[in-house]
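User: Sequence recovery, please. Input:
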């Protein structure tokens, strides 16, 4: 399947982010497989999966395109989504159809600028579609200029400049769609919790919408309720953004 055919197959649909960490209360060895099977049953057009191990599990279980990434946390940086070529190679080897990488202007643990990895991936794997996770319009422009096949504001809320947010920036996303449509696929990912908001993104120009926590992480859904009902005393986003340890490769 060509990159165009792959992107066309995702157009207008729901992509479900199926991820679980060993310290999540819902963790079992086959949890991501059940998530992916449920997503396919529901009519999702694709899966976003994390770590070589979980990508391989999902690829063996469902017949849907997989956007792969690998979260690697370090205390000296906010860059954690597929930050190195080693991580890229591992998720390609695991069977990812699309590779997601951090394409922000942040500094990595290795001392590089995160978005510089895009050029390396496109040079070494020109036929592998790249999903650029960005936090603002400037980073989306940079990713499109450097050959990203997909851009999405996945990291809005996960950088120092966007840390204190309480929802998606629909205005920024609309500008991203208007400016970059035709140059690359523009998808919405991050802070989408209702079907109505997903539809709003399609109306604004999204090629597809990725939803994770609202569908596949019931402990975080419950924590959002507890946070609001408790008068915002216990910020549920701290749990959503937490680093995780003991990852299974």
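Assistant: Recovered sequence (249 residues):
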């Amino acid at each position: 399947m060509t990159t165009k055919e792959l992107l066309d197959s995702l157009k207008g649909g729901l992509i479900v982010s199926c991820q679980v960490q060993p310290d999540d209360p819902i963790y079992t060895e086959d949890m991501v497989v059940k998530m992916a099977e449920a997503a396919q049953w529901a009519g999702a057009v694709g899966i976003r999966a994390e770590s070589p191990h979980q990508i391989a599990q999902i690829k063996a279980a469902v017949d849907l395109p997989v956007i792969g990434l690998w979260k690697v946390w370090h205390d000296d940086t906010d860059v954690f989504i597929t930050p190195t070529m080693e991580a890229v190679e591992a998720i390609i080897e695991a069977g990812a159809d699309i590779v997601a990488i951090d394409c922000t202007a942040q500094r990595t643990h290795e001392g590089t600028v995160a978005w510089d990895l895009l050029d390396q991936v496109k040079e070494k794997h020109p036929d592998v579609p790249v999903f650029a996770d960005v936090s603002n319009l400037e980073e989306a422009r940079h990713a499109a200029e450097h050959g990203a096949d997909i851009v999405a504001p996945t990291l809005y809320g996960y950088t120092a400049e966007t840390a204190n947010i309480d929802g998606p920036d629909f205005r920024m996303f609309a500008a991203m769609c208007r400016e970059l449509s035709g140059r690359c696929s523009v998808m919405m990912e991050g802070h989408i919790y209702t079907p109505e908001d997903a539809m709003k993104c399609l109306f604004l120009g999204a090629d597809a919408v990725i939803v994770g926590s609202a569908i596949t992480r019931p402990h975080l859904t419950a924590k959002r309720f507890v946070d609001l009902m408790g008068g915002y005393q216990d910020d549920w986003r701290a749990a959503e953004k937490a680093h995780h340890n003991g990852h299974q490769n």
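The chain has a mean pLDDT of 94.
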